[in-house]
Design goal:
Blueprint: H1 3-9, H2 12-24, H3 30-48, H4 73-96
């Protein structure tokens, strides 16, 4: 049934009821998307895991929002310091990399090698 015809035939209260039902029993919501991602990720992770380490399951990739751990100020400080250290190392590496000429002069014209 086309959307326009459905809206002509359905009352607003019935439409609201369907929206409520869909929001409760949504078969294509975030959990389903996480499960799909897990079905792709699990075999890849399992393929590269170390021998004896636990196998990944698709359900391991579903985000659990209700089990939040409260971070302490010290924990946040450690995280920020580790990010800063990682970016400092990356920036030092990038400064030490010499640009390649690739057969072009500084004006960008190809002179050949």
């Amino acid at each position: 049934m086309p959307v326009g015809e459905m809206l002509n035939r359905m009352s607003s209260s019935e439409l609201e009821e369907w929206k409520l039902i869909y929001n409760i029993f949504d078969p294509f919501g975030n959990i389903r998307e996480d499960l799909r991602a897990g079905m792709i990720s699990s075999p890849l992770v399992n393929m590269w895991r170390k021998k004896g380490s636990p196998r990944s399951k698709p359900s391991d990739w579903i985000m659990k929002f209700d089990s939040r751990v409260k971070q302490t100020g010290e924990h946040m400080k450690q995280l920020l310091q580790s990010f800063a250290a990682a970016f400092t190392i990356r920036n030092k590496r990038e400064k030490n990399v010499k640009p390649r000429n690739n057969g072009c002069d500084t004006d960008g014209k190809n002179r050949g090698i």
